[in-house]
Amino acid sequence: MGSAKTRFSFSSEKATSIKADGLIIPVFKKPVPQADSKVKRPQEADPRASIVWPITLDKALKDEIEAIALEEKFDGSKGKTLTVRQSSANKLGARRLVVVGLGEADKVLPRHWEANAHKALAGLLGLKDFKAAAILLPEATEKLSAEATVSLAVDAVFQATYKSMEAKEPGPKLDSVILLSAQKLEATLQQAQALAEARSLVKDLVNHPSNLKSTNTLVEQAKTIGKNSAVKVNVQSSVAWIEKNMPCFFTVAKGSLASDPPKFITLHYAPKSGKAKKKIAIVGKSVIFDTGGYQVKPGDYMVTMKGDMTGGAVALATMQAMAALQPQNIEVTAYLAATPNKIDSDAMIPDSIVNTTCGKKVEIRHTDAEGRLTLIDAVAKAAENKPEEIITIATLTGAASVAVGSYIALMGNNEALRDRIAAAGRSQGEPIQTLDVTEDDFENIKSKLDGADIINTSQRKNRGAQTAAAFVMSGASDAMPMAHMDIAGADMTPDEKATGVSAKTVIQYLLNEDASLGGGKSSAPKAGAATKASPKPAPKKAAPKAKVAKAPATAPLKSPAKKGTAKGTPKKPSDRQPPKGKPAAAPKKKK
Ligand code: BES
Ligand code: MN
Ligand code: ZN
After folding, report:
1. Class assignment of domain 198-532?
2. pLDDT by residue (tens digit) across 308-344?
3. Does residue 415 contact residue 407 with C-beta atoms inside 8 Å?
4. Which of 125, 176, 280, 309 is most buried, judging by how many CB atoms fall within 10 Å of its CB?
């Protein structure tokens, strides 16, 4: 794994006397007075007066901080930091104190807390012999729940210490982190670690170089998750079976049958009691590498396509978290149709008409719209198991990245489901924007050919993300509640590193569902706004300590021969039309 193990614990000790190499204290900023008020304008005001201290400081330390605040104009604004060193005068317990500004309390979102904690940690981790940190958790607000302050602090630690397995040097090692808080949210802490570990696993799998990655990388990881755990793994590697039962997925696999034959991987988690109240299916796009096929990706557009299996990595990471946390009320199955999109003499070509698991006939118009070809069959397979809902995660379209930038484009055919997922993800600090899939989108993927029902690209140049979503959802019936996350703009940073985005959204959503179904025995406390968004009445009481099982954590990845030197790649702007916010309509489609 990329990140080394850090020990986390809670303490209610006085922050300024705690022994550590570094102490982080977040502060809010008082709201800026209105322009018409008699109060001085912000630039004239004393910055010290704007800082809202979460704790009382001893006189010597307070004087020192105030002198620095005045000089450095530190006023608690978002992103500003102020550093103080331990001295005999200020009697700090920690070698160094970093005060981080979060901005005005009522505007602070979970992701702001994470970003600022991450930034402060990153600075401290560069110091000599930095092994132990203490983080004062900010006071909960309406937008930042107490649970979120814990989860996002933990994630900030994982993010700040992460290095991919290919890095020449391992990431900075942080032995221990003390979370300073009056409340000891142990169950939340355990969940937060499972979430952050899941995210790191996604990053490890995605960052892995393309020349060393194959369908077997995902198979091996699935098996690792299944070892000594409550997750059962099944790998279908019979090409004949895939050709017969998942013909559309097989069409993509035809370009790499010799070099890397396809695998259909399923992972199943059910509580030991056998009394799950809800079945949820997770389908992740698992295109190992996307060359575009015969309609090959031009220029630099192929760079970063090692990340086209991010959805599958998220599905695997979700199952790792299920194995670790063992929710008692939900059953979860993950589906990965794994194959590269490559070229050989048998590879798919445009103007083909191919069959699907759901029985619809597909006209291939573009060999680079391969993700939906794998997903339509994986969704149909998931639907055969009759889950209550299906969630798909995919680096599916450049259009999604044009429409929502580095956000997750969250779509679906069921507004309530979509809203619950959005709330869960946002409570975990993930950037999410919802888009509506309309009847027009289903219209626009109808084929004009006699022998085909649907086409794998829309005839129109716009709404590429939504028409792709409509295509994927066509694998199951209209009545099946589905949510679809297009993460094509979110899966990598501008410098081409995996973000691990969407794993926390999916897992937190599952934990929220589990808790809301829990009755007396819920296993997951809810975080933030997710509580309100849940459809079923949930127990208001704090949840009992989550059961934590041993989860395999090491990714079976080979080490690379040599570090790559990929060039910068702009995301493909295949859809320049920003999406219109049309009201969601119940999508209709061809039988
Ligand atoms: N894997 C790509 C989508 C993608 C693009 C992911 C950029 C991450 C970053 C997908 O298979 C693809 O090529 N989509 C095409 C679809 C088009 C041919 C209809 C696209 O978006 O250009
Ligand atoms: Mn493609
Ligand atoms: Zn692709």
Report:
1. alpha beta
2. 999 999 999 999 999 999 999 999 999 999 999 999 9
3. no
4. 309
- How many CB atoms lie under 10 A from the CB of residue 424? 28
CB 277 within 8 A of CB 329: yes
Using the atom order of ligand 1, give the atom closest to the CA of residue 400. Answer: 21
In angstroms, how far is CA 78 from the centroid of its own chain?
Answer: 24
Question: CB-based contacts of 126: which residues, under 8 Å, 6+ apart?
Answer: 172
If you take atom 5 of ligand 1, which residue's CA is the nearest one? 398
What is the pTM (predicted TM-score) of this model?
0.89
Angle at 144 between CA 152 and CA 493, to 5 degrees: 45
Query: In this structure, what token pair is assigned to residue 300?
Result: 């630099």
CA end-to-end distance (rounded Å), the chain: 45
Kindly list the domain boundaries of the chain, sorted by start residue: 7-184, 198-532
Q: Is 297 a catalytic residue?
A: yes
The encoded tokens of residue 574 equal 């295949």
Residue 148's φ and ψ, nearest 5 degrees, are -65, -35
**Where in 480-584 does DSSP place strands (E)?**
482-486
pLDDT in tens, 367-400: 999 999 999 999 999 999 999 999 999 999 999 9
* Residue 355, token pair as written in the block: 């069959």
Given a contact cutoff of 8 angstroms between Cβ atoms, the answer to whether 109 and 152 are in contact is: no
| Beta carbons within 8 Å of 211's beta carbon, 6+ residues apart | 560, 561
Please tell me if the CB atom of residue 398 comes closer than 6 angstroms to any atom of ligand 1: yes
CATH 3.40.50.1110 fits domain 7-184: no
Q: Note if 372 is an active site residue.
A: yes
Ligand 3 centre to CA of 395 (Å) is: 6
Closest CA to 75 of 124, 122, 40, 118: 40
